[in-house]
């Protein structure tokens, strides 16, 4: 056992990190391994690959992702700001490169291949964007004379414009919701929040009028008879088939025909094979991670840590909620991975980076350390 009086980086991390939060995240990762083994073999077999192709790649991505998570959780808030800026700049460059050179798949350019690896730069941009926006909102509360809110709006418009050009309206709506939540947490007036919501609604209506595949998904959701709803219908059947306790590991039927059973609809596979009980346990784990992080963030004396941890928790929770809602046919179909459960290299690594920052920002820190950080910021503002 590590003694509290030991002054090594690992001992300091161990006694300050939120162990319950870390345990919940590890539990989600382990659940992802089990569900990947359950959901991915039929998909791989259908397209002529080794049955365990996606499972082995899921584990292969998960191992370095866990290392990234732990390494980032050692960082100080200052180091997190710097790393987020670097990741954000690199991600924006890669998104621009994707728009210019990436292959077009189903009318979208979202992936670029580098050194034999497919990269979706918008995934890494998400947590970095949230941290950058949180820093600007934190600065606006401490230094009203700084145009931090205007800079945050410019940052949002830049990212949203690039995502719409791909186009990726799901990620766009996700970032708008998180940015709006940070805007509200920052104490902005309700009229501004209402204006943001109105602008987002107008943007969605514009997409409905101008983008055929967005209009098609909304129409199919409102009127299933208007188009192909095979995937969502099969997912709902999986929930009915599984009942409370499931058909048993490997006994699922839906995964044999669902094209995206290992990604967008892995939650439905979990319901059919392991039952609604497991699905409720997953929901409880996601809710615990979000609520625990928000509570720890609320207790933080440092405004940047409070905003950044809150934003990352909301990003994590909303993404999970969107995926599960699509599986349950509560919202129009949208390709959004279930954090640490769905297959996806870029998604898992980016999630690990974001959750690592959550763990770092919610670590227990002496009051003197927080005060010295705030004093240093104040001193720079008057220098």
From TrEMBL:
Query: Primary place of residence?
Result: membrane
Q: In which pathway does it act?
A: Cell wall biogenesis; peptidoglycan biosynthesis
Keyword set for this entry?
A: Cell cycle, Cell division, Cell membrane, Cell shape, Cell wall biogenesis/degradation, Glycosyltransferase, Membrane, Peptidoglycan synthesis, Transferase, Transmembrane, Transmembrane helix
Its cellular-component GO annotations read:
cell division site; plasma membrane
GO MF entries: lipid-linked peptidoglycan transporter activity; peptidoglycan glycosyltransferase activity
Pfam families reported for this sequence:
FTSW_RODA_SPOVE
Q: What is its EC number?
A: 2.4.99.28
What residue intervals traverse the membrane? 20-39, 59-76, 83-101, 121-138, 145-163, 169-185, 192-211, 274-295, 307-328, 340-361
Gene Ontology annotations of biological process type = cell division; cell wall organization; peptidoglycan biosynthetic process; regulation of cell shape
Cite the InterPro entries for this sequence.
Answer: FtsW, FtsW/RodA
Instruction: Tell me where on the tree of life, at the top rank, the source sits.
Output: Bacteria
Topology in the lipid bilayer: Multi-pass membrane protein
User: Which family would the database say this protein is a member of?
Assistant: Belongs to the SEDS family. FtsW subfamily.
What is the protein name stated in its UniProt record? Probable peptidoglycan glycosyltransferase FtsW
Give the species. Answer: Bradyrhizobium lablabi
């Amino acid at each position: 056992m590590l003694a509290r009086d030991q002054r090594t980086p690992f001992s300091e991390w161990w006694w300050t990190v939120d162990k319950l939060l870390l345990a919940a995240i590890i539990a989600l990762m382990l659940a992802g391994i089990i569900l990947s083994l359950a959901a991915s073999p039929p998909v791989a077999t259908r397209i002529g690959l080794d049955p365990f192709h996606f499972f082995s790649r899921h584990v292969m991505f998960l191992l370095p992702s866990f290392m990234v998570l732990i390494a980032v959780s050692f960082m100080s808030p200052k180091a997190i700001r710097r790393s987020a800026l670097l990741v954000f700049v690199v991600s924006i460059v890669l998104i621009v490169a994707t728009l210019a050179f990436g292959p077009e798949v189903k009318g979208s350019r979202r992936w670029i291949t580098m050194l034999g690896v497919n990269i979706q730069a918008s995934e890494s941009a998400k947590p970095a964007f949230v941290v950058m926006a949180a820093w600007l909102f934190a600065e606006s509360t401490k230094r009203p004379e700084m145009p931090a809110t205007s800079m945050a709006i410019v940052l949002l418009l830049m990212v949203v414009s690039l995502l719409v050009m791909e186009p990726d309206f799901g990620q766009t709506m996700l970032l708008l919701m998180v940015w709006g939540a940070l805007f509200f947490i920052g104490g902005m007036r309700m009229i501004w929040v209402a204006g943001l919501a109105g602008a987002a609604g107008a943007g969605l209506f514009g997409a409905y009028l101008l983008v055929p595949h967005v209009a098609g998904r909304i129409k199919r959701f409102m009127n299933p008879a208007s188009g192909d709803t095979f995937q969502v219908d099969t997912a709902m059947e999986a929930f009915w088939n599984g009942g409370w306790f499931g058909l048993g590991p490997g006994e699922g039927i839906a995964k044999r025909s669902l094209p995206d059973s290992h990604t967008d609809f892995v939650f439905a596979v979990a319901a059919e094979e392991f039952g609604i009980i497991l699905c409720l346990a997953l929901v409880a784990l996601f809710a615990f991670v979000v609520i625990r992080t928000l509570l720890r963030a609320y207790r933080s004396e440092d405004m940047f840590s409070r905003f950044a941890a809150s934003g990352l928790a909301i990003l994590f929770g909303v993404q999970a909620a969107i995926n599960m809602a699509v599986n349950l046919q509560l919202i129009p179909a949208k390709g959004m991975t279930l954090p640490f459960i769905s297959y996806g290299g870029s998604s898992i690594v980016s999630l690990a980076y974001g959750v690592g920052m959550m763990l770092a920002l919610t670590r227990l820190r002496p009051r003197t350390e927080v005060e010295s950080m705030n004093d240093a910021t104040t001193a720079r503002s008057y220098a």
